[in-house]
Amino acid sequence: MRPETQPSDLHLAVAGMVALAVAMGIGRFAFTPVLPLMQSDLGVTLAQGGWLASANYLGYLVGALAATRPGPSPSVLLRAGLLMVVVTTAAMAVSAPWPFWAVVRFVAGVASAWVLIGTAALCLGRIAEPGRSKLSGIVFAGVGLGIAIAGVLCQGTAIAGWSSRTVWLGLALVAGLGATFAWCGTAARSGSEPGGNGSSSAVSTGVADRRTPTAGGPILVLCYGLFGFGYILPATFLPAQGRALIDDPAVFGWIWPVFGLAALASTLLAARQGGAYTRRGRWAAAQIVMVVGVVLPVIWGSLAALVLAALCVGGTFMIVTMLGMQEARAVAGATAQRLMAAMTAAFATGQLLGPLVVGATSTLGWPIEATLLSAALGLVASTLLLGFVGRSTVHAQEEKR
């Protein structure tokens, strides 16, 4: 008889969802819709905005690398990261030179990485048993939920004529409420927390006797890093291409909430459709769809192509994130936090390489389409490498209810 989902597991999944909504939707991605407001009322230049984004990417990398070292448990990473997200979001409302904001965005990047790794290690360790793994879709839907909430809030306040400082304070208030809920929801289960970087737990290793802790880990890290490189280029430059086609910001501003809603729905649907295919098969399929989204604007320069591309990219990037973290746990067992952190660091490295490639190709006079094709090649390479890892040690039968 298949086990029923316990209410406490659902509560933990919802708490994890809210934690990711705060850390990723607000702490990491809210800068995208707020930047135009900062440009208009604070005079932030596009170049300065690029440096602020890069500071966040660098912080994300440093946070992930720090999490690979033995030390804090998943719950400590999660709660420390949430607190840092609230503080740094409020700090963006401070009137200061932009280098101060760069430091703030760097710390926010560290915090986002910690919450993602801590949430994945803590929540997936509880709900990976048969009959509960589909709750992972709820957890990772938090990223899309946070993006949608931040996007709607920024769009509404922009229409109302609010300043960027007021928007940051409003986002900090929302983050504080969400962080409090997530803190309480995860604290209720802290007594049975799975091991962090090296400890073991019977609760967290429901299939530990059937997996090899380090098998395939390095290739997964490489695949996830290539995914980061392939993802960041369209995610960065599709909005720029959209601005070139849509003059009315009131129309273009809704693209970001739609992007978030696509990410939200994708993880919920992917988790429900997991029984028929292995994780790596679904990971590869999601990246193929993303490749279509990357290449489409290159061969068809129209608004319709950009909308379809946004759906392809927005509807798959969190699926790959969810499946990647699940696969890390399946491969590494009780030491999954270290592999998750290594994969997140590889992803952050790919993100940092993206702007460098753009700068190099633009110096050579190459069009943006050439850069997008390099992103597609990175995703194709990642997809091909997944075939060399072999089938997941946790098969589709173990993911069913």
Task: Label this structure with key terms.
disordered C terminus, 401 residues, mainly alpha, Growth Hormone, Chain: A, 0% strand, 15 helices, disordered N terminus
Would you mind describing this structure in some detail?
The protein is mainly alpha-helical. It has one domain: Up-down Bundle (Growth Hormone, Chain: A), CATH 1.20.1250.20. 75% of the residues lie in helices and 0% in strands. It has 15 helices and no strands. It has helices at residues 7-26, 31-42, 46-67, 74-91, 98-127, 136-160, 164-187, 217-245, 249-252, 255-272, 279-299, 303-314, 317-332, 336-363, 368-389. Helix 8 (217-245) crosses helix 14 and helix 13 (317-332) runs antiparallel to helix 14. The longest helix is centred in the N-terminal third of the chain and has 30 residues, at 98-127. The radius of gyration is 20 Å and the shape is globular.
Overall pLDDT confidence: 78
Percentage of β-strand residues: under 5%
Order of helices and strands: HHHHHHHHHHHHHHH
Q: What is the total number of structural domains?
A: 1
Q: What structural class do helix, strand and pairing data support?
A: mainly alpha
Number of helices: 15
Helical content stands at over 70%
Can you summarize this structure?
The protein has 401 residues and is mostly helical. The protein is 75% helix and 0% strand.
